[in-house]
Design goal:
heterodimer, A: about 110 residues, mainly beta, seven-stranded mixed sheet, four-stranded antiparallel sheet, about 0% helix, about 55% strand, globular, B: about 110 residues, six-stranded mixed sheet, five-stranded antiparallel sheet
Chain lengths: ~110, ~110
């Protein structure tokens, strides 16, 4: 079946550094990918919708200059957390649509020290 | 904005028992999805519902799309230890779950006593 591969699965970084998270659709093309954020014991909150070849659409309250999204190809979307701070520590999950389904990546646990 | 109320928040059950959880909304959804999330993993789709009144099964799991389009339930029969995890409902105002924003419930944490 359709697989969305997300890397890295876990990253620890120092405050002020930038972290890039990759989301790949392995056996299908995804013109649209979605980036979610999940705090411990909380639900998934949509951050932005990534569109291949165009600018991402950000949800209200999400800083587009802090969470840079690039969807340069039909199989890859990246989320870069710039100048990360401890409050950015969270579980980030991407997903892609195939047919009438939404498939999720395995998530990236970001810890900012 | 749209919100989903999912209950219960958590439950402990004996192995072999049946489980039921539900989601309600004040607004109409045209697609209901049920996901399971294991710790440190992304959600995995269990059942998708696209039609009001629809009742769909996937093994020991059964879910229904409420006739009012404002609710859905998920039942797990004869629970086993591997059913442990967090179950999320998700709704979309669009037909089909592939596009648009999915609104997620807050999850039901299921713990099974062996």
């Amino acid at each position: 079946g359709a697989v969305v591969s997300q890397h890295p699965s876990r990253v620890i970084c120092k405050s002020g550094t930038s972290v890039k998270i990759e989301c790949r659709s392995l056996d299908f093309q995804a013109t649209t990918m979605f980036w979610y954020r999940q705090f411990p014991k909380q639900s998934l909150m949509l951050m932005a919708t990534s569109n291949e070849g165009s600018k991402a659409t950000y949800e209200q309250g999400v800083e587009k200059d802090k969470f840079l999204i690039n969807h340069a190809s039909l199989t890859l979307s990246t989320l870069t957390v710039t100048s990360a701070h401890p409050e950015d520590s969270s579980f980030y999950i991407c997903s892609a649509s195939i047919g009438d389904r939404r498939v999720f990546g395995s998530g990236t646990q970001l810890s900012v020290l | 904005g749209q919100q989903l109320n999912q209950s219960p928040q958590s439950m402990f059950i004996q192995e072999g028992e049946d489980v039921s959880m539900n989601c309600t909304s004040s607004s109409i959804f045209n697609t209901w999805l049920w996901y399971k999330q294991d710790p440190g993993e992304g959600p995995v789709l269990l059942i998708a519902l696209y039609k009001a009144g629809e009742l769909t099964s996937n093994g020991r799991l059964t879910a229904q799309f409420g006739i009012t389009r404002k609710d859905s339930f998920l039942n797990i029969s004869a629970s086993i230890p591997s059913d442990v995890g967090i179950y999320f409902c998700a709704g979309s105002s669009l037909y089909g779950g592939s596009q648009g924003n999915l609104i997620f419930g807050k999850g039901t944490k299921l713990s099974v006593k062996p």
